[in-house]
Structure formats: structure tokens, C-alpha cells
Design brief:
The protein is about 40% helix and about 25% strand. The chain is of the alpha/beta class and about 190 residues long. The protein starts with a strand and ends with a helix.
């Protein structure tokens, strides 16, 4: 059974990101084909990215906070990123969290749940491009939510009911792709041994 991390995409104190992530997890937990867990990037206390280039290839991290982050991402088979859109892009905290690692992301799948004034579409497209470098395959289905209609006063998450169906389709894709890509990672590790 694959393990999927639901990754928060914001570290701000005033974030609504965790509300969305908990909604994703409440729906994901109804499934029996994967295990899901919340992975809050804020809890890892990653400083601004400042690693040497070889560290991402050797896992010899100079930043102490990077080691538990590396272990967590390495233990997962796939991801659902819960993405806040800031200035038409992803947050700096999420970008740093992605940049700290490389091998740990390789040959895994991800889905994107975004929100913003324009459904977080620009940030979702930005994230797809960023994830392509460390070889994360992003599924086609995307849940995009509006700060104006899916939140009360832009602070209390209250999603429109139709988002649940789209999220379930996204989860179907993430689980199936994560399962398939796990075989590739297993084959590669057998070749190395």
C-alpha cells in the first residue's frame, strides 16, 4: 500500500492552508488503497535554502533541519500539495522545502489542490514546472478553489460541494500513479544492490 503525504504549502502564521489540508485528508482517509498523512512544512522549521549543490545529490545536508525533512519525503510514495497562490506563484516556504531535496522526490507522483483569487491556477502551473526537475509526475486533475466563494471572509474554509468529486478523481490518479512509480523505484534499488 502506498503512502501519500498531504503537504501544506504555506508557513505563514495567518495561513488557511491547514484547513484545506485537513479537508483533503478527511476525504482521503475514506479510501482503503493508500495511507495518507499530513505533512506540515512549517513544523520542519527549514531556514531559507542555502545548501551546497552536492548536498542534494549526496544527501549530505549541512542544514540540520534538512535531515528530518529528507527522511519524511523519502518515506512517502506520492504527494498532494495544498497550494496557496501568492502573487501568481507558489510560496517561498514551499519552494525552499522542494529545493532542499532532490533524490527524495524522484519518480513519485503528485496532485495539486490550490486556492487563490483566481483558483490558484498560476501557482499550480508554477508548481508543475518546478516539480518536473526533481522528477515528480503531476497528475492532470487539479482542484482549484476561490478565496471568494470557497472561504467565508477569506479566512474560514467552506468548499463548494462539487470539489469533493474532483478531489476524489485527483486521489484516484495520485494513488494509481504512485503505485506504478513505486515499481520503478524498487527496480532501480534492486539494480543498485
Amino acid at each position: 500500500m502506498v503512502k501519500i503525504g498531504i503537504i501544506t504549502g504555506s508557513t505563514r502564521d495567518s495561513r488557511v492552508n491547514t484547513q484545506v489540508a485537513e479537508w483533503v485528508k478527511s476525504i482521503a482517509d475514506q479510501r482503503e488503497d493508500a495511507r495518507f498523512e499530513l505533512v506540515d512544512i512549517k513544523e520542519y522549521h527549514l531556514p531559507r535554502y542555502n545548501e551546497s549543490v552536492p548536498a542534494i545529490f549526496t544527501k549530505d545536508y549541512q542544514t540540520p533541519e534538512a535531515k528530518p525533512w529528507s527522511e519524511k519525503i523519502d518515506s512517502l510514495d506520492g504527494f498532494v500539495f495544498v497550494l496557496a497562490e501568492y502573487n501568481k506563484g507558489i510560496t517561498s516556504g514551499l519552494k525552499d522545502a522542494i529545493d532542499y531535496l532532490y533524490q527524495e522526490w524522484n519518480n513519485k507522483a503528485a496532485g495539486i489542490v490550490s486556492y487563490g483569487s483566481t483558483l490558484g491556477v498560476s501557482a499550480a502551473n508554477d508548481l508543475r514546472l518546478i516539480l518536473s526537475v526533481p522528477k515528480v509526475a503531476t497528475v492532470g486533475t487539479h482542484v482549484g478553489m476561490s478565496l471568494f466563494t470557497d472561504f467565508e471572509n477569506m479566512s474560514t474554509f467552506n468548499p463548494a460541494p462539487f470539489h469533493k468529486d474532483t478531489l476524489e478523481k485527483l486521489l484516484d490518479e495520485v494513488v494509481s500513479w504512485s503505485t506504478a512509480l513505486k515499481t520503478i523505484r524498487t527496480e532501480k534499488s534492486e539494480v543498485i544492490l
